[in-house]
Amino acid sequence: MTRRGIAIHEAGHAVASAVFKRPFSFVTIERFGRLLGHLELRGEPLPPSEEAIATWAGSVAQALLAASNVEHTANRGDYAYIERLANTIAGNDKRLVRALMDAWHNRAMSLVTEHAAAIERVAAALIARTTLTEADVIACMA
Length: 142
Ligand SMILES: [Zn+2]
Description:
Blueprint: H1 3-19, E1 24-28, E2 38-41, H2 48-65, H3 73-90, H4 94-114, H5 116-129, E3 131-133, H6 134-141
Antiparallel strand pairs: 1-2, 1-3
Bound molecules: zinc ion.
């Protein structure tokens, strides 16, 4: 994955988190072990639907804004987390899990489309500075 692809992915998570007021300490595109980038959350998780949309926003931003490979390893962890969130609501009903994941994916597409310019600004700042605090991200979005 390109540095821009990673930056767009992490910017998607960061902007969606800011939209949902999901607190985080920082977002980075500095490589850490197997992770190509990372959003460090703090505080309590959001309700499952908002957690899932903020998680989908990474790979959705990559697909829509960076035309980047969404099947990358970095996205498998996100996908597994979204599936677990769906399981908390739908149990093991596979059709309902799939329907929830699809609905959350559609909402992430709307969010990324609506906030595309902000995601691009955050990604550009990540490429320039590697790591941004939550306050930096919010400043980029203004
Ligand atoms: Zn991700």
